[in-house]
């Protein structure tokens, strides 16, 4: 793997996170070129190393792979005084520290933000928790599933009747990782202007509530509590799944122009002229009737036939793919959204790719997801300048 420099190649990140929100955040920074040093407990490491099956032939979990490329793994016992001193040495030379311990954990270990700032006034410190560092829930443990429930997201997800559902991926975790990495990049830019570090307080609940966006706005400006609509949209009709002669597909007429084009292409021009359906507000008002009409129409042809009609007319529509179909889609392949990397064990692994392309500063896999502690000695020697005797001492004492 080449060591091509990225946009953040001058940035060093001390990564004290595990599981998903934090590791996803630091992986995004690593993808952009940052030197991410992942600190893990000796003998155990990130919890997700054991989250499987599936595991690769060498024993690495697929879950761990998903959020830990472009990092160097260093083992360090933070329950020891010597381990905390090593951590402080790392912080002295760091640009960013990211952690997702329970609120107050680092303070108890002697490395609060105030202590970090005393060591390194320019450090950007980002903490990721379930509920934030303030408020009545600050001390509660937070998991993605619990936050999806508490944020109201599950009240929107699932069929109109029956139980609510969580989103099929850990969306609160992932959103928090994205928002946190965005805030870190903004803080790095601001530091270039004012020379000052920053403290960033990110949480799963904050991120998920913020991402309710138009649904929250609907409630805040109408007073009406949103309810589940299955795959329907609260503000746009039609915008959902429909059943064709041989299966389901996704269809969206996002504006009146698209609706009119579809009606013409499908041979139902009169629908576009009917005042009950001519405008989106009217279609929302008459949602049930519109959906019944479309159900009957779409049942007359196959999925492939309807997709061809929609493509020809420029109407958004698509197949409802399984994961294997989605990852084999020609557009996914063309955008290089499946990455390959070789681990220290010589094993080739695959992972979902990077969701942006930056010509001239392409994000690359510089480091495959690392084996536990694979870079411990390298970091101690090259980053901290420790000699062989000091490294051997740390190993013999169980610090690394």
Structure overview:
There is one protein chain. This protein is α/β, with parallel strands linked by helices and 400 residues long. It folds into 2 domains: 12-211 and 335-396, 3-Layer(aba) Sandwich (Rossmann fold), CATH 3.40.50.10540; 239-322, 2-Layer Sandwich (formyl-coa transferase, domain 3), CATH 3.30.1540. The protein has 18 helices and 11 strands. Strands 3-2-1-4-5-6 form a 6-stranded parallel beta sheet, sandwiched between helices. A 3-stranded antiparallel beta sheet has the order 7-8-9, covered by helices on one side. Helix 7 (171-194) crosses helix 8. The mean pLDDT is 95.
Brief account:
The strands form three sheets. A six-stranded parallel sheet has the order 3-2-1-4-5-6, with helices on both faces. A three-stranded antiparallel sheet has the order 7-8-9, covered by helices on one side. Strands 10-11 form a two-stranded antiparallel ribbon. It folds into two domains: 12-211 and 335-396, Rossmann fold; 239-322, 2-Layer Sandwich (formyl-coa transferase, domain 3).
List the keywords.
three-stranded antiparallel beta sheet, formyl-coa transferase, domain 3, alpha/beta, Rossmann fold, six-stranded parallel beta sheet, 400 residues, 11 strands, 18 helices, single chain, 2 domains
